Amino acid sequence: MNNDSESAISPRLTENLDRIKALYADSYDVVFHHLQCGEKAAAVIYLTGLTDSDQLNQFVLEPALRKMKDQEGGLGALCECLPVSSFAKAATLDQLIMEIGNGNPVLLMEDEDQALSFSLAKWEKRSITEPEAESVVRGPREGFVETLIDNVSLIRRKLKTPALKMKSMRIGRYSQTEVVIAYLNDIVDPALIKEIEARLGRIDVDGILESGNIEELIEDNPYSPFPQMQTTERPDVVAANLLEGRAAVLVEGTPIVLVMPTSIFTFLHSPEDYYQRYYIGSAIRWLRYLFSLIALIGPSFYVAVVTFHQEMIPTTLLLNMTKSREQIPFPALVEALLMEITFEALREAGVRLPKQIGSAVSIVGALVIGQAAIAAGLVSSPMVMVVAITGIASFLIPHFTLGITIRLLRFPMMLLAGTLGFFGLMMGFALILTHLFSLRSFGVPYTSFATVTHWNQLKDVSVRAPFWKMNRRPKTGFWNRYRQGSHQRPGPPDGGNKT
Amino acid sequence: MEKEKISNIQLGLMMYLMIGGTSILVVPSFTAMYAKQDMWLSPIIGSVFGFLCVGLAWIMNRYYPGETIICHLNRVFGKWLGSVLGFMLLFFQIDAIGLITREYAEFIVQAFLSQTPLTVIIGSIVATSSFAVRSGVEVIGRFAMIFAPIFFLFVAAIFLFLLPEYNVLNMLPVFGMGVLPSLKGSLEPAVWFMEFLLITSFYPSVRKGDKGVKGGLFAVFLMMLTMVITNFTCLFLFGETTANLTFPFLSASRYISISDFFSHVEAIVMALWILGGFVQISMWYYSLSLNLAEWLNIKDYRPLVFPVGLLISVFSIWVAKNFQQMLHYFPTGGTGSSVIVLVLVPLLLVAVAWLRRKISS
């Protein structure tokens, strides 16, 4: 780009206009509107689709033409008579171009080395709807949208404190995407914010179209299959995380917000755990832990048992299984791979299709193909059951990003179990754990509870402890330890238990 | 030096697993060989060596904080003698880790995967461990944090599940032959307890403010408890015939049958055992790589991990022609070399270091 002296706005209007016109050559949607402001010539430049032209006419052009007719004076006088709440002065062409790009009309005037830009951007946007990927039975129904400023306002509405900071930066050479780092000043570790800023500052790419682009460019271990940042489209989840001393990165143009640092357990928690009674929250958490293990090793466990460790199966069941496996021409491993790959294909087909057809695909897949495969002697019925349970188990993981990782890791586990039995399974398990134990998310261990005995943190991992028991923040906000008063446990009014 | 830190309790649990896995495999039959019905006493006597070794290592660590035993040897005995003694320790370590790996591999092949070649098992264990070792001591610490409690619980669970099968009279007469048999029998668990000396590789990684010696002593105690439990299980179940079984505790786990449903759990036993063994091998592997790096004066041990892994695989095949030969080695050559390298040399080391400090002050 130009350096400062070149990019400064010159006092001669025509020169400025020529330079902007050269930049916006062959762009039919840029409007150059010339007008006479009193004695001086002026021009308004804006992008048609992005600017509210009604308001521009009513609050900028009309007053400018009418009131300035008999007055002397330049921009200063103009500022005073315009009924627009928010405008800014720009001194360089770069700033000007950015304002135009954002949809804000700019006004240039003869003999002035500054320009005015009005916040009159307006474009079609989606209204706030229920987040589809993270639905809850109990809890707020609003989700983030594609407009950054709406997302910021959704968070602001939940946390009204001035300690809520929103640092903005622009990333992408061509896309110039606005990215906002949100955090609570009193709670967050300042080093974390510095680190996030440094990592975002390093990004030098053509364009950022989704927060996934950013996620991939700022994570700790780029080769890991595990997600190292939490993604959410729920403002309440972001607010809860900010309150626990984490930071969020919002990206213009996507409803998906990144939250960091994170641990693997966050991906197994649903916001609803905190809204339901804590017994229910804890029980459902355990269910999820169990089924995420099944999602990872369900089919491989079955393959290992059937191939190497038949003695583990109770005798009557073993007889039945042998009977059903008798006509199957394949070893259990091939059978499992066949079914799992088919299942994944069906799932993918269901996701990409329109919703109405998607359900049809799953019915065809589940009922017809399953039954027919058993009848045709391709797979045994226990295998279909194992695959179905594994499929359901993988849907129990509330965050899609972890679910897809576990589904992927299932395949190498099956190969190991099919070749080396339980031994292979355990070796695979050990490898995955080694990776998980060494993984970090913004410097915080991914399996942080296992590092040190933080009973405090276990309260929110092993169970969902009642709120009045969780007085301390997680370790991320260690220097501002207590998040609530110490006597939060409710009960009957004083003396209530005596009567 | 390693910059990653572990906590006191992690150190304890790591040391527990470092010794634990194999001790349960073969110790009961060896102790039964000498101590007969007094076999439950032997680990208690043998544990004296554990406390001694942890103490010796801690004293050296206090004298020269933040250094491993190879550095200590060099400092105390001078460069030449120190290097020779250091090489002796390294050689002992590679031999021992080869034995441990072989033991696991033999156990898996004999009990479960009879068709699989030994080398495949050895190769996969060493390869998997090498990743853990490269990831550093913190990762191994987290493994220990999760698996040591599971390991102990499963030993206790086997003991409890077998309650209906026990014949308590097997332990009588106590001291029927005097104290000598249990003393003789204690020599075998003592070898395992001597291995606690290798805690020297992990003391420098303990977080500041945590007294590593506490973790070490706790580990020795837990190990003693585990051995007593396993020996009791085998004694109550098999009596003196324990001596004739190769893996008595595994055989014991085959007896578990609760209401006909919860039976044949040995595959699960093996699964847990393998994870315990994985941590154990990683610990030894880490200790060896670290010591070798110190001995060669290399700052980072990580480039040595894969070459050392290859050595371990080769040694685990070289270490014995067959399983019988390996079992024969434990109560014979194994005991002697352990006593020399893990007790006598450190004792000498501490004594000379103490004298030097006396003289210089």
Question: What report would you give on this structure?
Answer:
The complex is a heterodimer of chains A (499) and B (361). Chain A has three domains: 4-118, no CATH class; 148-262, no CATH class; 277-444, no CATH class. Chain A is built from 16 helices and twelve strands. Chain A has helices at residues 4-7, 13-23, 53-67, 75-81, 93-102, 148-158, 190-202, 211-218, 235-243, 278-307, 315-325, 332-352, 355-375, 381-395, 400-438, 455-458; strands spanning 30-37, 40-47, 87-90, 106-109, 115-118, 164-171, 177-184, 230-232, 247-251, 257-260, 440-441, 444-445. Chain A has a five-stranded antiparallel beta sheet, sandwiched between helices. Chain A has a five-stranded antiparallel beta sheet with strand order 6-7-9-10-8, sandwiched between helices. In chain A, α12 (332-352) crosses α15. The relative contact order of chain A is 0.08. With 361 residues, chain B is an all-alpha fold. In chain B, strands 1-2 form a two-stranded antiparallel sheet. The model of chain B has no long low-confidence stretch (mean pLDDT 85). The interface between A and B is medium-sized, with 28 and 35 residues.
Helix/strand layout:
The complex is a heterodimer of chains A (499) and B (361).
Chain A: H1 4-7, H2 13-23, E1 30-37, E2 40-47, H3 53-67, H4 75-81, E3 87-90, H5 93-102, E4 106-109, E5 115-118, H6 148-158, E6 164-171, E7 177-184, H7 190-202, H8 211-218, E8 230-232, H9 235-243, E9 247-251, E10 257-260, H10 278-307, H11 315-325, H12 332-352, H13 355-375, H14 381-395, H15 400-438, E11 440-441, E12 444-445, H16 455-458
Antiparallel strand pairs in A: 1-2, 2-4, 3-5, 4-5, 6-7, 7-9, 8-10, 9-10, 11-12
Helix pairs in contact in A: 6-9, 10-12, 10-14, 10-15, 12-13, 12-14, 12-15
Chain B: H1 8-35, H2 42-63, H3 69-111, H4 118-135, H5 137-161, H6 180-194, H7 212-238, H8 248-254, E1 257-258, E2 262-263, H9 266-295, H10 305-318, H11 323-360
Antiparallel strand pairs in B: 1-2
Helix pairs in contact in B: 1-5, 1-6, 1-7, 1-9, 2-6, 2-7, 2-11, 3-4, 3-9, 3-10, 3-11, 4-9, 4-10, 5-7, 5-9, 6-11, 9-10
